[in-house]
Amino acid sequence: VTSTGKAAINDCAQHALWTERATRSPMQEAQERLAQPGIISFSLGLPGTDLFPTGEFAKACGAVLEANPQALQYGPPSHELKSHIVSLMRARGVSCHERQVFLTNGAQQGLHLIISLLLDRGRQIIAENISYPGFHQIVGFYEPEVLPVSTDPKTGMDVDKVEWYLAKGMRPAFVYAIPDGHNPFGVSMSVEKRSRLLALAEYYRFVIVEDDPYGSLFYSDPPANPMRALCGHRVYYVGSFSKILAPSLRIGWLVVPDHLVPYLSIIKEACDIHVASFSQHLVAHLLNSGFLTRHVEGLRSEYRRRRNTMLAALSRQFPSDAEWESPDCGIYIWLRLPKHINATRLLDLAASQHAVAFMPGSVFCIHSEPSAASSLRLNFSYPSMARIDEGMLRLGAAVSSAEKRSTRGRAMSRGSTI
Amino acid sequence: VTSTGKAAINDCAQHALWTERATRSPMQEAQERLAQPGIISFSLGLPGTDLFPTGEFAKACGAVLEANPQALQYGPPSHELKSHIVSLMRARGVSCHERQVFLTNGAQQGLHLIISLLLDRGRQIIAENISYPGFHQIVGFYEPEVLPVSTDPKTGMDVDKVEWYLAKGMRPAFVYAIPDGHNPFGVSMSVEKRSRLLALAEYYRFVIVEDDPYGSLFYSDPPANPMRALCGHRVYYVGSFSKILAPSLRIGWLVVPDHLVPYLSIIKEACDIHVASFSQHLVAHLLNSGFLTRHVEGLRSEYRRRRNTMLAALSRQFPSDAEWESPDCGIYIWLRLPKHINATRLLDLAASQHAVAFMPGSVFCIHSEPSAASSLRLNFSYPSMARIDEGMLRLGAAVSSAEKRSTRGRAMSRGSTI
Lengths: 418, 418
Fold this sequence. Notes:
The structure is a homodimer of 418-residue chains.
Chain A: H1 3-8, H2 26-34, E1 40-41, H3 54-67, H4 79-91, E2 101-104, H5 106-118, E3 124-128, H6 133-140, E4 145-149, E5 151-152, E6 156-157, H7 159-167, E7 175-177, H8 191-204, E8 208-211, E9 235-240, E10 252-255, H9 261-272, H10 277-288, H11 291-317, E11 332-336, H12 343-354, E12 356-357, E13 359-360, H13 370-373, E14 375-379, H14 385-413
Parallel strand pairs in A: 1-12, 3-4, 3-7, 7-8, 8-9
Antiparallel strand pairs in A: 2-10, 5-6, 9-10, 11-14, 13-14
């Protein structure tokens, strides 16, 4: 190899173009922060570790392995598990068939597969500007034109704006919605908005991707039916056992029109062959006993108490200078602080000086938005009531010291925010 | 909505373009065939179900759940499991660090993630024309220009052809190789070819994706070291527990340069958050006991017996009109039948009339190839010795009746093949 020869050779080993615009995931940063000794975390959407039915799991593992060595083999999707999912969907008002159920590695893979099915590079999609970052991550690979809509804290997605885009001639590959226990707002979409969105979907013939990991976790009356209950061919439904059983199994599901299942099978096999058979068998076994219904009732009672504890603490800590709603569903409260508080900088202060963490609002934005910059998402399913009380005291102290710095800062420079 | 209004509206709900050229997966067809009553299957690359260590698994499940309820929670990749993987790699001659190990849902997702990292749409790649269809499936989504090379049944990949492409100015995003126990040929690449391919990689600065699910399953001397043992920055290694422990857990790993791990984390999180924590803990627990080394030794003994049983049957059934090699590694034998036998049609006959199945050679081709059309892949890890004997009798009978039909056919039409 002469030096001329060397110079003439292009380097083949460049990486794919997306790596140039890749940014670190806020969820992974929050996950690392969890390991900080003594920290109380309201950051991530984790179920309460203390509520996992470990005894039931241990029994189920033994029973599955004894009954069926095929549980350790490659295998087709479990028909038994699909039947259980059909029953779960029925309890949510959705009528569907095993042929329409597709098993995934949690809801995140469900979204990934549906997006692969619907989206070509550069197409338009409609989504709430403040919504689940895992959705932004996966659509980001397709560099879509995202047409953003806002979210009302009491009634959910701005369906007027959806209609406005469509009337202007926009043709989205799909509309993304989290109708129940919205992430991060905690709001459930009003029945009227659900009907209007569905009517638009029929008229303009678009698909709604209905992301529903939280719909079974309601705290007063059961929520409105999922949109899938009203329309089988325009709504592609994404469900998950992560929040109601255990995230570590990575089992979720889709409910889609029958004729799409073969396409999903092709993508799924290319991505990772199939959902872990052992996990499938395990969940099917747990559901055989009728255990899940009781377990979810227990989760609802406990999460309701945790939510109430957090709401009471909010009222004590933030008597006048902050806003929030009481969520009827899901595991999040969206806290709006005064505009001069920057939630990202508040997190640095809160985590380092007060040993408490949350998700700053900007993490959830597709296009950055001033209202989100001073807001934050608080999760109430993971910490115990005692830790919620203690953590909210710490958060109140962090906001107070941010306020003081901000006042000093404004007095000095007339402009900077913490 | 007036009828004019309706007609003016474009349908948003078209699917992504790839769905128009999607074809059914041959592995899924083979999986369905497995369910045919009484069939003996040599089709898929399944481990022997009878060899799964179900007792060890049951004990490990109980121990993991008792010790650590975090096993059911979302969680970061298990450092303990990564350490075990570093030790496993050391036993294969590879020196690497936990920071370079990335956990995946089996080798298939490992390939998927590396390809996402390396490949932009339409780029060139170099691959053996006859190779693992799961690789073809996943690269297919990127519509690459595949530069095919052939495979020598005794020494592996045609490295001369690789050099020819590079000398002609081709600049592949990577070269894909299965150096040990090749799928479908069963061949392991010669040491000389490994060195030459690495020298080319250094000279032309390309990356080798080294797919190694079978390297621990060797039947005489341990095979040559993986290419990763010789080069840490040009070889991205793909490993898996599927063939040596259990596929249903979906645990595999990558060994890549440290600086790529953050990019892999981003894709992985977007795809499905993370590898099932419970499976990670389970495998780590099983490996703590040193159990895996003994288990793999047991698999090697048994698979060697199964391979020998199949080789003996081949000698009995196909005394003169077929060719095959004895594989020193892996779980496949590549059987070349006379040219006038079409293996795809033979499979229809064999499965329907003789209750035996295999993978027809054409399934493994990127560009169709006459030599593959009359060849087939036989797996010897899944069936017991008794079933191999019986299945090979059935296969012999199927080939005989195909030969008879072919002779009659040729006498009648001078051209058609079964």
